[in-house]
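Subject: sequence -> structure tokens, single chain

Hey, anyone have a minute? Need the predicted structure for the following. Not urgent.
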Amino acid sequence: MNILLVGSGGREHALAWKIAQSPRVTRLVCAPGNPGIAQHAELRPELKVPDAERLAAVAREMKADLVVVGPETALEAGLADRLAAAGIPCFGPSARAAKLETSKAFSKAFMERHNIPTAGFGVYERPADAIAALKVFRPPYVIKADGLAAGKGVSICPDARDARAEIERMLGGRFGEAGSRVVIEEFMDGEEGSLFALCDGKVAMLLGGAQDHKRAFDGDLGPNTGGMGAYSPAPVFTPELVERVRVEVVEAVIAAMAAENTAYRGVLYAGLMATADGPKVVEFNARCGDPECQVLMMRWADDIVPYLLACARGDLGRLPAPAFSADTVICVVLAAKGYPDSPLEGSIIRGADQDFGPDVQVFHAGTRRRDDGQLVAAGGRVLNVCARGRDLAEARDRAYAAVRAIDWPGGFHRTDIGWRALARDEEAGD
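Reply:
Had a minute. Here:
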């Protein structure tokens, strides 16, 4: 098979690493790719995401048997729709189906129509209306930009004064068109996690869960980011909770999408809150999470390609559920100083390409290779250091040992990835 992978981040490096292991793959091309992905695939660095027209042209040119879409911006731009018109199978939903992620207002209205459990909400376009609506909600206030904001469009405000200021910033242009509307939600108390499912428009197949760390600094302090680390499996997902999510969320979404003539194909990421009233949806993503994808790829024991192709073709039901390792995998994100607001680019990274052994993988998320061969930072989240272990403590120790072996004064990372599950383990041991 000839496969085109779209994207350039850590999620796409993990996908390239996994796809390249398949004996079915003859040629793997990544557009635009990054220096880490270059170990597994041909790169097309001249291509930009989300240029759906040129990406579809490359798929036709290389006679792609499958296109795997990583970033949400390419889905929003309608890449899957262009590929469908060209008769090329695509792992990723249509632009309309992807609105589950690309428009929070659409997603919340969809869940309300189909009785999918989520927080109460309101959608507002004028600052005065949004500020007046704060009287309906209780603090802390959850304020979200409607559109895509690279994981930074959510603010949890402790009081009405902060909420008013955030509303004015968002509707005043902080996120451009993505912030032309805001969603105000009820605050949900509980533990958050993410559950993933493969979907072919009719059938959904659960992949398991992970837990992300959104805040920039230790102790869940600082601004929201695209994710500073993750681990899988996540103990918050008890068998009982998973079963409820399967029925009340995942299968309900796929059936409701089909009923609205919008078949959902690809991966459905359900960001969930385990509340006292049961699981509720925080958000949907229409693609693999980042950095959750990285830990799931390291746990996936089967050849991934047949599953990606079956989702694209609509015949996932003929395959058995994929096998996953019982090991725990953790990901520690190394970010450039100044992230998420003003990351510093261009600092030299040494030691990221060394052999850390079979239980550690370093995925490139925001790097470039200079003409002199030096690896440098070229983004906010720059490296994803992932490690497996028999339990979370062993995986954590291996990951942080690898982090210490990388020489990068221009970066920072959280030192407490996995703290919730580790605290639970220690409590159980007592």
